[in-house]
């Protein structure tokens, strides 16, 4: 059986759109961030709780795999922690 992957595209422009991502527990997931605005601190996205940090070059999609083994809410944010979003796993 081929396991499906949850894929979510997030636009980064003065914040994150969507700001809240809902995922199903136990199904592998990927978040793809695309920065479309040259605003400074949004050139990095990171999450301590989901254990990733990615540089976001302008207009280049960057994909990170996120763990879905635990239910809960997990935050991701820009390099200066001024803008943030959440992943909700149920």
Question: Topology, please?
Answer:
Blueprint (H helix, E strand, L loop, with lengths): L5 E7 L3 E2 L2 E4 L5 E7 L8 E4 L4 E4 L6 E5 L5 E7 L5 E6 L1
Describe the structure.
The protein has 90 residues and is mainly beta. The chain has a single domain (6-89), classed as Cupredoxins -  blue copper proteins (Immunoglobulin-like, Sandwich). It is 0% helix and 51% strand. The chain contains no helices and nine strands. The chain has strands spanning 6-12, 16-17, 20-23, 29-35, 44-47, 52-55, 62-66, 72-78, 84-89. The strands form two sheets. Strands 3-9-8-5-6 form a five-stranded mixed β-sheet, with no helix packed on it. A four-stranded mixed β-sheet has the order 2-1-4-7, with no helix packed on it. A hairpin with a 5-residue loop joins β8 and β9. The model has no long low-confidence stretch (mean pLDDT 95).
| Helix percentage range | under 10%
- How many structural domains? 1
Strand content: over 45%
Largest sheet properties? 5 strands, mixed
So, the CATH homologous superfamily? Answer: Cupredoxins -  blue copper proteins
Using only CA atoms, what is the Rg?
Answer: 13 Å
What is the tally of beta strands?
9
CATH architecture: Sandwich
Number of helices: 0
- Low-confidence segments, given as residue ranges, are none
Q: Report the end-to-end length measured between terminal Cα atoms.
A: 23 Å
